[in-house]
Write a structure and sequence with these properties.
Blueprint: E1 4-9, H1 15-29, E2 34-38, E3 54-61, H2 69-77, E4 85-91, E5 95-97, E6 100-102, H3 111-119, E7 123-130, H4 145-167, H5 179-184, H6 186-200, E8 204-206, H7 215-219, E9 225-228, E10 231-234, H8 243-247, E11 253-255, H9 257-279, H10 285-288, H11 290-316, H12 320-328
Parallel strand pairs: 1-2, 1-3, 3-4, 4-7
Antiparallel strand pairs: 5-6, 8-11, 9-10
Helix pairs in contact: 1-4, 2-3, 9-11
Bound molecules: flavin mononucleotide (FMN) and iron/sulfur cluster (2 copies).
Residues 11-16, 61-65, 91-93, 104-105, 107, 132, 134-136, 240-242, 342 line the site of flavin mononucleotide (FMN).
Amino acid sequence: MYSNLIIYYFTGTGNALAVANWIAGYFSKKGIPSQIIKIEKNKIPEIDAISESTLIGFCYPTHGFNAPPVVLDFLRKLPRRKGIKVFLANTRAGMKISKIFTPGLSGLAQICPALMLWLKGYKIIGFRPVDLPSNWISLHPGLRQKVVFSIFLRCERIVKRFSEKIYSGKKVYRGLFDLPLDLVVSPVSLGYFFYGRFALGKTFIANHKCNSCGLCIKQCPVGAIGFKQGRPFWSSKCESCMQCMNSCPKRAIETAHLLTALLWWLVFSLIPVTITSYLAHDGNFFSQHYTLIVWIIIFTFGLPVIFRGYKIFHFLMKYKFFSSLIVYTSLTRFKFWRRYYAPKKYLKQSHSS
Ligand SMILES: Cc1cc2nc3c(=O)[nH]c(=O)nc-3n(C[C@H](O)[C@H](O)[C@H](O)COP(=O)(O)O)c2cc1C
Ligand code: SF4
Ligand code: SF4
């Protein structure tokens, strides 16, 4: 039915690459040449030479109830083509509590890319979420190896069934099962896309174990880290894919929990509430529109204050006392707060390319 398969993928910690490998591996076994291509920032996808019988897939993680901005940007640049068949597979935050596998939530992570592709003339033949282990270790410790492997085994079966159906020409809209919930959380995905993600990159710091090897800078898929004062500095381009933190050979990257809590408390509570309360007097404009003014201050000044604050903290990190304070008040420094990366065996390509 298909002459070849091309899968475009983006990944932070390997989950989406594992899914791309499983699907490509299945098609290769059926004699269909398969190729997987990494989505890179500012790279325009070349699909002009692709024939009508090519199947295209997109595999990527879910970030803030949406597809990562780098993926949305790639789709935006994708040339229009009528009738080319495509599928989507977004990885989500899977967990296992006791013996129960719990799913993540896609939000707009399928709806938005599917809509963009459909508007460009592509034919969506399937979309499916895949609940691989959650990699958001700024929020929770990395899962235990045993749990990681059992989640992978389960997902491998799920992705195989998905591949079978797509290969045999069936349509798979499994992603629609969660549509009501996905729509409920869609305001959060918009908030994350337009605001929250810029603040998240400013939660990372490199501790004293960092030997300035530069690996995190080299590997960051969106070029968001640079050296400042001889230490890694996270810019607002960061998409919080978690690659750097999970693959630093010195385990030197932490989420600065105390610093973040302080900065966010200042920006989202203390500063806007104090300014508005100061301006509001009986019945005047500021007291009548109190909540609105608080929100306007947050949206206007929030990010610039966070960026400036992070710059100051980065400068102060060169002082031993300050750097120890930040590191010792970060939960990610604890040994039990594991790091996460997809097991190596799932990242090996088992297909033609
Ligand atoms: C910043 C961030 C936001 C995330 N948001 C979501 C989300 O909205 N829903 C979800 O199910 N998982 C979410 N996750 C979890 C990842 O989507 C999930 O672990 C995914 O499998 C990682 O894939 P990767 O290894 O290919 O990067 C988030 C992870 C990060 C780091
Ligand atoms: S990879 Fe780790 S040790 Fe190397 S520069 Fe980055 S933070 Fe430092
Ligand atoms: S800085 Fe780290 S978390 Fe941010 S996009 Fe780059 S690799 Fe991912």
